[in-house]
Amino acid sequence: MAGLGNMWVNEICFLRGTSPWTPVAEVDLVRAVALGRRCLRQSITVRRNGQVTTGNPKAGEEHWVYGRTGLGCRRCGTLVRYAREVPGDMARRATWWCPHCQPGPGPDR
Q1: How far apart are CA 99 and CA 109, in angstroms?
Q2: Domain 6-97 adopts which CATH fold?
Q3: According to the model, what pLDDT value does residue 87 have?
């Protein structure tokens, strides 16, 4: 999903239970975009919410998977995985995901 920013895309994929490597034709785009819209709206309308996706603005508690390499998934306890940016990616976007909560293809597919 382009245009939302790396953190939001990682978190929206988690919240939708979608592997970040799922082909776009297999993604329910209407629901993914609607969730992105709700997340962005809340981030600008709820005081001190910023980029909080878990509902907890406490430092280190703000995200489900983003930036949580090797830590337990907040939902199931599985270790959160991390994939470095794609070679040549000028934006240096990395990906975090829970392989249990986000079943489907992985970066090595």
Answers
A1: 13
A2: Helicase, Ruva Protein; domain 3 (1.10.8)
A3: 65
